Amino acid sequence: MTIYAAKWCPACRALEGGLAERKIAFEVVDVDENASAFARARAASGTSGAIPLTSVAKSGSMVWIVGADVDAVDRAQRGE
């Protein structure tokens, strides 16, 4: 699971904190430090560039979640 986020983003921090509380492992890509990775993620997800943007690889496909919806990310991680 990868979260595309920024240090200055309160929603990003909320998502990261919520996932950490649930002991869900994730990697963070700082969009300010790695704009090219974020551009590739935006293109793959078809989103406009809102953060946080989370990618969850499950059963050979990629699920994309825009926003700080901890429950949605948790469900995607569990394959629901």
CATH architecture: 3-Layer(aba) Sandwich
CATH topology title: Glutaredoxin
Q: Identify the CATH class.
A: Alpha Beta
The spatial strand order of the largest sheet comes to: 2-1-3-4
Question: Mean pLDDT across all residues, rounded?
Answer: 94
Shape: globular
Please give the largest β-sheet.
4 strands, mixed
The level of helicity is 40-55%
CATH superfamily: Glutaredoxin
What does this protein look like?
- This protein starts with a strand and ends with a helix.
- It has a 4-stranded mixed β-sheet, sandwiched between helices.
- Helices cover about 40% and strands about 25% of the residues.
- The protein has a single domain, classed as Glutaredoxin, CATH 3.40.30.
- It is built from 3 helices and 4 strands; from the N terminus they run βαβαββα.
- The chain has about 80 residues and is α+β, with helices and mostly antiparallel strands.
- The protein is globular.
How would you summarize this macromolecular structure in one to three sentences?
The chain is α+β, with helices and mostly antiparallel strands. It has a single domain, classed as Glutaredoxin, CATH 3.40.30. Helix content is 40%, strand content 25%.
List keywords for this structure.
80 residues; alpha+beta; Glutaredoxin; 4 strands
SSE layout and pairings?
Elements: E1 2-5, H1 10-21, E2 27-30, H2 35-45, E3 53-58, E4 61-66, H3 70-78
Parallel strand pairs: 1-2
Antiparallel strand pairs: 1-3, 3-4
